[in-house]
Design goal:
Strand order of the largest sheet: 1-2-3
CATH class: Alpha Beta
Strand content: 25-35%
Number of domains: 1
Structural class: alpha+beta
Number of strands: 3
Largest sheet: 3 strands, mixed
Low-confidence stretches: none
CATH topology: GMP Synthetase, Chain A, domain 3
CATH superfamily: BolA-like
Helix content: 40-55%
Length: about 80
């Protein structure tokens, strides 16, 4: 799991100018929900990026979602994104 989060970090850093990123695994909070699967993650990305802050929130989130599009199909069930100043 830790290696997978490092892979997410590397993908985002490769495509987007980031100052910092914290990946929080909230999967445990969703056990028992209708479509819960232990093979998929519920993640919260806390991102610090001057570049992303210069864009609209929707545009910034679309960029992140595009970078993680394959992961969203296979490994990530839910993704919360916070772009901090």
């Amino acid at each position: 799991m830790k290696n997978y989060f490092e892979a997410i970090r590397a993908k985002l850093n490769k495509e987007i100018e980031l100052e910092d990123i914290v990946i929080v695994d909230n999967s445990h909070k969703h056990k028992g929900h209708q479509f819960y699967s232990p093979e998929k993650f519920h993640l919260h990305l806390k991102i610090k990026s001057i570049y992303l802050n210069s864009l609209s929130r929707v545009r910034a989130q679309k960029i992140i979602m595009k970078v993680l599009s394959d992961d969203l199909k296979t490994k990530i069930h839910a993704l919360e994104i916070s772009i901090e100043k």
